[in-house]
Amino acid sequence: MPTLLNKNGFKFFFYANEHEPKHIHIMKSDGFAKVELDNLKVVQNYLKPKDFKLALTIIKENQINFIRI
């Protein structure tokens, strides 16, 4: 599972040979989420609301780079 970014206690990663649409997995402590990269649709979210809001901000800041990978 390649890690794309570690920031503010979050780990942003994907699994090799993932299915479409492109998405990113996020982990922090005991919470996790999955967000589609093209439209930022939340597929799963088990993060605290404050943590998810920050994670989404980080995804938006890095969205182009995440999509390229």
Number of helices: 1
**Number of structural units classed as domains:** 1
C-alpha end-to-end distance: 13 Å
Helix content: 25-40%
Strand order within the widest beta sheet: 1-2-3-4-5
Beta-strand percent range:
35-45%
Outline of the structure:
The chain has 69 residues and is an alpha+beta fold. 29% of the residues lie in helices and 36% in strands.
Give an account of the 3D structure.
The protein has one helix and five strands, in the order βββββα. The chain is α+β, with helices and mostly antiparallel strands and 69 residues long. The chain has one domain (3-68). It has a five-stranded antiparallel beta sheet, with helices on one face. The longest helix is centred in the C-terminal third of the chain and has 20 residues, at 49-68. The protein is globular, with a radius of gyration of 11 Å. The chain starts with a strand and ends with a helix.
Write out key terms for the chains shown.
69 residues, alpha+beta, five-stranded antiparallel beta sheet, globular, 5 strands
List the helices and strands and how they pair.
Layout: E1 3-7, E2 10-13, E3 23-28, E4 31-36, E5 42-45, H1 49-68
Antiparallel strand pairs: 1-2, 2-3, 3-4, 4-5
